[in-house]
Amino acid sequence: MDAAIEVRGLFRHFGPVPAVDGIDLTVPRGSVYGFLGPNGSGKTTTIRLMLGLIRPERGSIKLFGGAPGSVDCLAQVGAVVEQPAFYPYLSAHENLRLFATLAGMPSTTGSAAADRALDVVGLSAVAGRRVDGFSTGMSQRLAMALALLRDPTLVILDEPTNGLDPGGVVEVRGLIAELARNGKTVFLSTHVLTEVEQLCDRVAVLQRGRLVADGLVRELLERGQRLAVAFDTAEQAEQAARVLDEAGLATEPVGDRANTLMVNFEPRSSSDINRLLAGQGLYPAELVVRRASLESVFLDLTEGV
Amino acid sequence: MGSLLRAEWLRIRRRWDVWIIVLGIPALALLAYATSAHSGGSFNVQTSGDVPPEFKQQIAAETAASLALNALPFQFPHSIVTMVQGSMPWLVLGSAFLSASLLGNEFTWGTIRNVVLIRPDRLRYLSTRLLTLGGLLLLTFGLVTVMGALAPVVLRVDPGDPSALSDPSVLGRIGNPVQPIGPVSPGGALTVAGSMLVVAVAGMALAGFAALKLRSAATAMLAAGIYAIAEGIVAALMMSRLPESLRFIPQMALTVRITSLIQDAQVAAGLAAPGGGPTNSVGWLSLPPAVGAAILAAWVVGLFGLWFVVLRRADINE
User: Fold this and answer.
1) CA gap A248, B171 in Å, rounded
2) How many structural domains does chain B have?
3) B290 falls within a domain
4) Which residues of A touch B (CB under 8 A)?
């Protein structure tokens, strides 16, 4: 797999607590990779390590095969890390132009790149305004503009919709989808689960500095799915529960519906269950795969770890 | 390096605090100079009743000598020393503030993160910032020096009769008895002015180190100020308490070296007599000027070196 980001055995602690504890990650090129975790789980520290802002105590990181924090790697990377940070006495355009100059762009190219980036995030109308008068949402958009200034191949976004109003959230999500359509790799750290469900094809879940899940979003959701098996009578449901229990499959009743069971059927398929029950003369009236929400999967993964 | 310097210009050109310092310090120095020059050209002796003729003669000689003495600081090239000396506290504070502000605010605003992500070569970035600070300090100092050189043309103070200063009847009766009285050479004036520039550079180095270490302009200024005061007190205490064989230790202190450097420069320029100034302090051991200057140079180079060590190793958590 051609990786944009490759992380192996990453470890970094602050004080006595490890902030990042042995993380392994592979982010394929062209993917939209969700990075989920509750507050304080180590998402931002991992991103800082990836970008070379802080150094790991152990482990290795490669961005496009190169060292993090190297000129060649960072030239391909645009990043929004936590709170937006700009020179408050400069306008939005002046800030971007300054960073374009710092990136080595000639004056006219830098100015054009700043115009383009501001247009993409919808800040063209306020390009000449000092950023100390910007709202949180505007600053967040400006941070996105800075991340896109150099037309990066990899965009690392740490909570990019923080502080945005609903309209802004939709716009930023649209922007991320657009980046993905254009073949960019997006590494999206968030705790907004719907964002991951809507935008990402792969996801990693972090809890207390450790990776507790990593894979395709579809696979993760499948891990949490269950089978609702309904019978004509409650007696049949009780017999089916015993049969499934003997087969090592966990079941539980569904609220006040005594004739229905929920079966945690992974790794078997629904037809396996059907076959097993039919073999015992139990014919379900209905078999429905209940897809888990990312929220429930996330809570299952992060609670009690 | 070119793009880094252009970025520095974009960064500072709209910072009013930078320009207030760069232009405000020469303005303050000029104001102080003009005020002193206004009173420098006058000297009155009031007498009552009949004055015996021999006293009248003595009074006339002393008045002429005092007029010439008061006018001396406003004659070229002494006027350079006067102007730079007038700006000295502002120059040191201003250079320390510039350094703390331009370095510390990058952390306060969090912009250091963007800078490092776009230009990951931290040492080159810091070198450019050092160049910028040096340029701003040189611009300020240059303005003050040029104003000092031109001031005698614009704010003319009658030099009186310089020969009155060598009148045997006034020797030891006017001015500071231990301080030579006479015109200073251009080289001497630039030596004294240069020593003050070095002091400003030392202030810049100390405040910049504090800003990089503490990641805040305001805290850095406070810390650098407290350090300078505390070091001065401890050094003075050590000089009076330590046995003579160990008195070289407080002589190494930054604040002691700064005071000595100015004193040594004034002595070299003929503006102060050896043995005056801080050398009057209890327990003072005079070091040869070259040794003192070398210790101060080590301080400044060491502090600037620490800038690079601190930033190179720093985790950017902003």
Assistant:
1) 114
2) 1
3) yes
4) 48, 51-55, 69-71, 74, 77, 79, 81, 83, 85-90, 94, 97-99, 101-105, 107, 146, 150
